[in-house]
Amino acid sequence: MDDAARKRAPRWFRLAALVLMAWGMTGVAACVSQLTQGADAMGAASDYDRALFASLPLWYRADYAIATATMLAGAVALLIRSRHAVTLLTVSLVAVLIQFGWMFAMTDILAVKGPYTLYFPLLIMAIGALALQLAHVARRRGWIV
Questions:
Q1: Neighbours of 59 (CB within 10 A)
Q2: CB-count burial class (<10 Å; 0-12, 13-18, 19+) for 145
C-alpha cells in the first residue's frame, strides 16, 4: 500500500498520536534527567532511593533509555502514519516489561515503599499497551502503511 492508498485517519487518531508524542517526550526527559542527575532527579531522594539507583546495572539504564526512546519514536511514527509504529511500540512495551519486571522481582522496593509503588509503573505499562493496540488498529484500517 503506497501513500495514495492510505485511508484518511480520523481526527481522534491524530490527537491520540499527539498525546502519545507528548507522553513520549515526557518519558525521554525523565530518563535523561534520571540518568544524568541520579536518584535526586525525581525530587528529594531518600538514602534507600540513592542506594537503589546506584545499584542499578548498566543494562537496566540502557533498557530504560530504549523504552522511552522507542515510545517517542513510535508515537512520531503514528503521527507520520508509518508502519514502523507497530515495531517501535512493541519494543517499547517489551523494554518496559523487562524494566519493571526486574525492578519488582529483583529488589525489595515493594517491601520498603509499599504497594502504591506499583501504580505509576502500571499506568506506564497500560499506556504502552494501549499505544501498541492503537498502532495495530491503525495498521488494520489502513491509516498507517
A1: 11
A2: middle
